[in-house]
Specification:
This protein has 931 residues and is an alpha+beta fold. α6 runs antiparallel to α9 and α24 runs parallel beside α25. The protein starts with 22 loop residues before the first strand and ends with a helix. It has 28 helices and 38 strands. 37% of the residues are buried.
Length: 931
């Protein structure tokens, strides 16, 4: 990389190849061998000095020939173990008698070997020295005390001029928290160092290889040679080599600190680099294998204890705050509302986390405690934090640095601790702290990272490490882990208290209707179970036309009307009568000590009260009520509510706005209705329904010609025998079975029509199918019909004609459905025309193709001439509306002659043909083809 000016970008350090320098320190040598072939792939240039064999002579040779077969086996075994860390595999004595240490590590496809001479100056550690140092750690009560014991023990055992414990802060900068030094050296204890002094790439390296040593800051790196065939061309990763060459920038840094040699031990808390133990010497010093092993073991123990002591320190702080938390949680259970409980515990809320102010948002309320930041500024900060998950505590101590445009936060809101509550809807607690001005002493100016030399394309680190004081502003005291834990525990306690209050509210709602305040069904059942229903009477009230109010005026008006109805009922009954809302627009009045005349009189008073107009939201609402009356002494074994319900349905069936006294015959009717309902549910699956087909004939002066059929549904009931549609179709509509039943009829009729047309293709046969208004009013009916027709693509759409009743045309949804159906090509016929509301004047505007005249047109009781003139006039008017005329109900020859003479297009009836089975219909088709 080339940089044109003298300025320096610290990010350049992050790109240094510190794990793959391609060189080693000169106090040892390095070789690698391919794991597959065992042949030497790399060797350091100084191999001849260390091993006695020139590097060029061993490249490509079998590794066993260089270090011996036994050591090769040990090297391969080290690779099989899978360990990345260096592993001592033994020693090797060269030809001149010099003993060499061999250390194995893995790097990709290579087995790697550090080779170090055994030197007389490699002082052996006193027996038990490591264990003695480690045993002193048991007296540490804090992380700082542990680090003080560690640096003391390391200096005592290893004898370096200076040993320091270095701890990283949340922002990455480091602080010397413990130190042992030679008396003539300048102290570094308490000094801070910028994060750029130890780049992230170096920190990551110390997590992988915890111990690193530099023997001489002025060494010349020894390059590696590679075999042209065995070297894969990729930079060799030397992370785990104890000889790995270090960054020249770091060597300059050491020299600027008057440090000739160093031994560094990474300290980890989990997967995070917590800090380092750093040993400095003013003269060169080689840390031999035993020293490095001792340093590594001490570092491992310190790392384990750091995590444990951190938890202990946090627990101790948490315990100190636990009393406040317990008192605060206890206070939350008092007060009519949770907000009131918070107000009563204002100082505890602040003391819990050492805050100067707090804001609590709860159920639409906002409570302020202490000196809170200005509302607008506070809201901008909260908005910038997004929407953390409930109980996900978020803490910041640099709010004013993040929002320099809000200087008003300095005095009250430089730090924030945010706790979103589980209730959602923006509910939260936000604690605040003011700015805390502090002075930090740095080891040199933290802003001066170094200078860049364009000529050498290298960085020169800063040369001055003189104490440099900085006043830090814009930050609050940091929030501790214990404070965050207490906030989270408070959130959990609030969630539990809200759940408890909700349960209490639910217990109240268990017996009372939240809208009207009346007792509910649960309370009524418990009351009846407690008092029994003997000598009791019950009125079951269902409002007439309430749905119309909801649909036309909206549910808000509907709810208001229910409230007014409840008030009217309470005002009309006796003080000791119980008024209950069962749900929807159904109410009950439970009475005692009333005879039949008294209860009927009360029902009438209630009916009259509900008949009066109610004013809701400035609008007049008119309703009435159907009232079922049941007395315990006249219902046998029936439930009182059930008996009154049956009587209410009888009142509604008889027109509504009336009372009906329960009698046993009503129960029998209801029982039959329930039985038919159950029977109808299984009728389709058990093939109890079937279709018959009544022929439809085209009329001509001479004869009749078969043009189609009307599909008619029949039910072969297993107990009641053959049932006519007039009996079960209204029941199916009332009970909601008409949709499944209608779909079944349409599907069967369409398939049979296709079969009939195949039997007589030249007859162009049609099929008429009756459709209920309930089917047509369902929005997806046209789409379902289209799906059915898509299953018979060869069937002309005009061959299907749907018959509807005249009265169904008043429903707007039905009219819209008919338009969609006609767009499919399907024809529409008005069935029983002349019995409903439609006038001949509006006939042209109806979305229909055929008018089927009711049989009432045939039995006028007039003279033949009068009947002919009337019928001819009706037929002519229908034809004038461009509709075809079908006369149904032809039962005599005279009626057929009348219809033919009047000009009707088609006719059907028992005189022409009764409804036929499929086989009989096919016979008729065959006979018609011969004519």
């Amino acid at each position: 990389m080339t940089i044109s000016g003298g300025t320096f970008d610290p990010s350049i350090c992050e790109m240094e190849p510190i794990a793959t320098p391609g060189a080693i320190q000169p106090h040892g040598a390095l070789m690698t061998a391919r794991a597959d072939s065992g042949r030497v792939a790399h060797a350091s240039v100084n191999l001849g000095e260390i091993l006695g064999l020139p590097a060029a002579s061993v490249l490509g040779a079998p590794i066993g020939e260089v270090i011996g077969r036994v050591n090769e086996i040990l090297l391969r075994e080290a690779r099989r173990s899978g360990s990345e860390t260096p592993e001592t595999i033994g020693s090797f004595r060269r030809s001149d008698g010099q003993l060499l240490h061999l250390h194995a590590f893995q790097s990709g496809d290579y087995m790697c070997l550090d080779i170090e001479p055994v030197r007389d100056e490699d002082g052996r550690l006193p027996p038990g020295a490591r264990q003695s140092v480690i045993e002193t750690f048991s007296s540490a009560m804090t992380q700082v005390e542990l680090c003080e014991l560690a640096v003391h023990g390391l200096q005592l055992v290893l004898g370096y001029d200076r040993v320091m414990a270095y701890r990283f802060g949340a922002d990455g900068h480091g602080e010397v928290i413990a130190e042992r030094r030679r008396q003539d050296l300048e102290p570094y204890l308490g000094l801070h160092y910028p994060a750029s002094d130890i780049p992230q790439i170096a920190r990551a390296l110390y997590l992988r290889q915890r111990v690193g040593a530099i023997a001489d800051a002025c060494y010349r790196p020894v390059p590696l040679l590679g075999h042209p065939e065995l070297d894969d061309g990729k930079p060799l990763d030397l992370t785990h080599s104890s000889l790995r060459s270090v960054s020249p920038v770091h060597l300059d840094y050491m020299q600027n600190m008057n440090t000739a040699a160093s031994l560094t031990i990474g300290l980890a808390d989990g997967d995070r680099l917590w800090g380092m133990l750093v040993c400095h010497n003013t003269t060169p010093r080689i840390a031999g294998p035993e020293w490095r092993a001792a340093a590594g073991m001490i570092g491992q123990v310190v790392s384990l204890l750091l995590s444990r002591l951190g938890e202990v320190e946090n627990a101790a702080e948490t315990l100190a705050r636990q009393s406040t938390l317990s008192t605060l949680v206890e206070r939350l259970s008092t007060g009519d509302t949770l907000a009131a409980a918070f107000v009563a515990a204002d100082q505890l809320i602040l003391d819990l986390v050492g805050a100067s102010a707090a804001v609590v948002r709860l159920a639409g309320q906002e409570l302020h405690f202490g000196r809170t930041p200005p509302v607008d500024a506070m809201q901008k900060v909260l908005d910038s934090l997004g929407r953390p998950s409930p109980l996900e505590v978020l803490s910041l101590d640099d709010v004013t640095l993040r929002h320099p445009e809000l200087p008003e936060l300095l005095a009250a809101g430089s730090g924030i601790l945010l706790l979103p509550l589980t209730s959602g809807d923006g509910d939260l607690i936000a604690w605040f702290r003011p700015e805390h001005v502090q002075t930090i002493t740095w080891g040199g100016n933290p802003a001066e990272h170094g200078t860049w030399n364009p000529a050498t394309q290298r960085m020169r680190p800063r040369a001055s490490f003189d104490a440099w004081k900085e006043t830090v502003t814009g930050r609050s005291l940091p929030w501790t882990s214990a404070e965050r834990n207490c906030a989270r525990e408070l959130g959990e306690a609030i969630a539990a208290e809200m759940a408890q209050r909700t349960r209490a509210e639910l217990a109240r709602l268990r017996h009372y209707d939240p809208l009207t305040g009346l007792a509910n069904r649960s309370y009524l059942q418990e009351r009846l179970a407690q008092d029994g229903q003997s000598a009791a009477a019950l009125l079951f009230i269902d409002l007439d036309r309430f749905k119309a109010v909801n649909d036309s005026m909206g549910h808000g008006v509907g709810d208001g009307l229910l409230i007014e109805v409840a008030r009217s009922l309470v005002a009309t009954v006796r003080p000791h009568d119980l008024v209950v809302r069962l749900g929807g627009d159904e109410f009950v009045v439970l009475c005692h000590r009333l005879d039949a005349a008294g209860i009927v009189s009360l029902a009438e008073r209630l009916r009259q009260a509900l008949e009066q107009p109610f004013e809701v939201a400035g609008r007049k609402c008119h309703i009435s009520a159907s009232i079922g009356i049941a007395m315990a002494d006249s219902i046998g074994d029936l439930d009182l509510v059930r008996a009154a319900d049956i009587a209410m349905y009888a009142a509604k069936k008889n027109g509504g706005n009336r009372g009906e006294l329960f009698r046993p015959s009503l129960y029998e009717e209801t029982t039959q209705l329930v039985e038919l309902d159950n029977d109808m549910r299984g009728a389709i699956e058990s093939e109890q329904f079937h279709l018959v087909y009544q022929p439809i004939f085209a009329l001509s002066p001479e004869a009749e010609r078969l043009v189609g059929f009307e599909a008619l549904l029949r039910w072969d009931h297993p107990h009641h025998g053959a049932l006519q549609p007039g009996i079960f179709i209204p029941l199916a509509e009332r009970l909601g079975h008409i949709h499944a039943m209608g779909d079944w009829v349409l599907r069967r009729a369409i398939l049979q029509l296709q079969a009939f047309r195949s039997a007589g293709p030249e007859l162009d046969l049609k099929m008429n199918v009756n459709v209920s208004p309930r089917q047509l009013a369902k929005p997806d009916f046209p789409a379902r019909l289209a799906d059915l027709l898509a299953q018979v693509p060869d069937l002309p759409r005009h061959a299907l004609c749907l018959e509807i009743t005249e009265t169904s045309l008043s429903d707007e949804a039905v009219s819209e459905a008919l338009i969609s159906i006609r767009a499919l090509g399907v024809r529409i016929a008005i069935d029983d025309f002349g019995t409903g509301f439609s006038s001949l004047a509006c006939l042209r505007r109806l979305p229909v193709d055929v008018a089927k005249l009711d049989r009432a047109f045939l039995g006028g009781g007039h003279t033949a001439a009068q009947d002919h003139r009337f019928f001819a006039a009706v037929t002519g008017l229908v034809h004038a509306a461009d509709l075809k005329v079908v006369q149904e109900g032809i039962e005599t020859l005279d009626q057929l002659a009348l219809v033919r003479a009047a000009g009707a297009d088609f006719a059907q009836g028992f005189h022409l043909a009764a409804p036929l089975s499929i086989a009989a219909a096919l016979d008729l088709i065959a006979a018609s083809r011969k004519e």
